[in-house]
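In the laboratory, one determines a bound structure by crystallizing the protein with its ligand and collecting diffraction data. In a computational setting the workflow is compressed into a single prediction: the sequence and the ligand go in, and a structural description comes out. We illustrate the idea with zinc ion.
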Amino acid sequence: MILEIVQYGHPALRAKGKPVLEITDEIRQLGNDMIDTMRDANGVGLAAQQVGVPLQLTVLDVTDVEDRPSTMTIDGKAVNIDDWMPMVLLNPQMELSKDKEIGMEGCLSFPEITADIARAGSVVTKATLLDGRKVEFGSTGLLARALQHEFDHLHGILFIDRMNSATKVSLAGRLKRLQKSNR
Ligand code: ZN
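The predicted complex, in structure-token form:
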């Protein structure tokens, strides 16, 4: 089922997600509906806040973006990303590398707005999957960037909070209008 994606100005986007304590049928349904919703919107990631539910649950799929590669490792060995996507992560924790990479980002809650954002070049993620398995994996490239973007959402942080001041100033008018129309 396709869910409604809330836009900037909606209070759910600023809410910290509550941990998912039990994987119920409702949680499984939410994860699967969010995958459908992300695909329908041509996104690479979607956090529960973006469908109005402040929970520590996010979905990702970077496999359709051919010009922005990703790597994924488990126990230090490269794995085939296609085997892991789409991915539903519950209660993720992240360890970020110190190096920063600048890259273009958009957000399904900010239609038609993109900006360069500095993010850690690689990320180690620990999370629970929808079937209850625990997973720990390394990532670089678009996957590492998308994970950091979604992890922020789960804590009420938005990509506009990570823009440099010049970018923020140049987008100020559009952001204000968007915020007003969704309040
Ligand atoms: Zn986003």
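The longest strand covers residues 87-96. Keep in mind that any predicted model is a hypothesis to be tested, not a measurement.
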